[in-house]
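Following up on my earlier message about zinc ion. Here are the inputs again, as you asked, copied directly from the submission form:
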Amino acid sequence: MPAFAQVEPLVTTRAVRGPFDYRLDDEHRGVEVGTTLRVPFSGRSIVGVVTATADESAVDPERLAVPLGRAGDPVPPDLVRLALWMAEEYCSTPARALGLVMAPGAGRTRPRRVLHAELTVAGREALAEGRGLTPGQLAVLERLRELGAMPATHAGAAHGSLRRLDVRGLLTLRSAPVRRRPVATSVGAHGLEPVLSAEQEAALAPVLAAIAGQGEDRRFLLHGVTGSGKTEVYLQAAAAALERGGSALVLVPEIALTPQTVGRFQARFGDTVAVLHSGLGQGERYDEWRRLAAGEARICVGPRSAVFAPLWDLQLVVVDEEHDASYKHEGDPRYDARRVAERRAAEAGAVLLAGSATPRPESVVALKRLRLPSRVDSRPLPPVEILDMRDAAHALHPLAREALGEVRRAHGKAIVLLNRRGWSNFLSCRTCGHVWQCPECDVALVLHRSSGRVTCHHCGHSERAPERCPSCRAPSVARHGAGTERVEAELASGLATPDFPVLRLDADSAAGKDATARTLAAFQAAPSGVLVGTQMVAKGHDFPDVTLGLVLDADSTLRFPDFRAEERTFALIAQLAGRAGRGPAGGRVLVQTLAPDAPSIRAAARHDSDGFLEGELERRRALGYPPYASLIRIVCSAPAAGAATAAATALHALLNIPGAMILGPAPLFRLRGRERSQLEIRAHDRTAAVRAVGAAVEAHTASAVGRAASLSVDVDPQ
Ligand code: ADP
Ligand code: ZN
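Thanks, got it. Here's what our run produced:
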């Protein structure tokens, strides 16, 4: 038994740098890497994770504290290693990273136990003889004999009478854990295994070989057009991993938006599938976690946080829709689940299988590409038409209006995408030009008519929609631009009938629990209608009866000052096109834009992802962007602009990264009442850059100017 444990106390401050040594005595038998302990720390009792054990300590053992006791489920050692790697890779702290890999509930959630009743041998004999029992007692024992052990609440008798039978030795009452079951989300799921197409076979073969330990490639990119049957390839790869006694991890962008994928895994593999996501209650999530940790469930499906699922003998990691930005975590550590998945697969010797119709340039360069060039049923991809809006008089192009009318006449379905929620983008005073702005951020407030409020989309600040101007008192407020709320209202007034509903899907409409699923189900169930929404409508939904896809203001994503703007615009249009024409009626896509010649929009209209990737890779190479360099963004923020800039300047001086380009300090717009200043690092040697930034940040947070500002590091910013 080791004499000492190195424990990382789970505190969030950057200033605390563990691990710290604790002395183990006899009652800590079995403490190992991953054990969670309660430890005394700066006069408090804190939960910590053991990161190493040792026979010696550099500190005098007499001065070392002893742990207070265990603190819930242990973290599997491979996840401890993953967390420590993540802390470095994302310039965070071990404590923050370990917090992500702990069992749900941070040591406070326990298995739910209920009282079970079971017939004893004496009980059986008493039943056979039938003597000395009241009719009620007879009934209870008979029920137990029929059903075996059962929860006491199901035994059909009051607790007191069960106790009396227990005392007489005729049955035993014991507390046993039960599973809190999440509701299965099988949307249109069927468990039958179809015969693979020749293309699917060809794509699957090298993956199966890799799972069997053959072939050179272990990391794959399944580049297949929308509807090409990628999910079926994942399913059969997962089956192979299970057959070999291993387990599989399947990451999806957002559960609420991809219920079909989850449903198909559940339909195929039943209880072997555990689902982990934030929509589950704490108890349900904990039980699913335990099922995985115990090896009862061997497939985990979930969004980015599921990359930390406690799977044994991991043999396959699937990243579905790998282009999706939701894989990036916005809290500290700002990890990218795709990169973490890659690391985890490599450490476990598992096969990585990422898939998308619009893969990232990074993945195209790094992974072995497998292709599914056509849709499963050989249906063509829908034709895409670009509508030039530069001279448009109305929000809807005449052709778009006509196409929507046609869909209604044919009792079909349409999806309309506008990547901006709310009623109008900003408000101004017609008399004096005043613009309504967030008091905490330097951005305009967005009008939401249904709530009668104007809202900041950055910090959530919200106030009553104005009736007059606060500076000149004029009652003339102009509304500029249109968001999904307004488009929904206009389409509803122009088109909707009881059997042609107009539904909306965006972050506002999806606010309540299950609201997203309900909207999607309503659209699925409706015989015809329109679904309006933000990028949420372009995710992997499979509605075979959608015949029209309409993108409004397609260049809105291009106007972001971000090197990924082209990639995002291309993906959004191509993904929306992927929702249209999946059924026998075929389909078409219309794209309204002010930039009809933008290469990303042109390529999307041609369904030309190879052409797009080629041009994009060339551009990135020329400009020194990923995948040809790594980006690290550091943002210093403080209530006063001076302090933020001073912190960024001081940090800049501490950064010494040979061969890297460091841009800034550059001011960013004020956010949540804090002035911000940014440094951006472009480096070819990623490891060296990350290490240098980590060291600089540590030195910086210890300095006076560093303490005056807070700091966030984003490796691979989105
Ligand atoms: P993707 O994930 O590439 O968009 P899906 O896996 O959702 O495509 O497949 C589209 C549809 O085709 C689904 O309804 C799926 O059940 C069906 N499908 C997939 N593979 C086959 C096959 N080999 N034979 C028949 N149908 C298939
Ligand atoms: Zn704000």
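One observation from looking it over: The two ends are 46 Å apart (CA to CA). Hope that helps, and feel free to reply on this thread.
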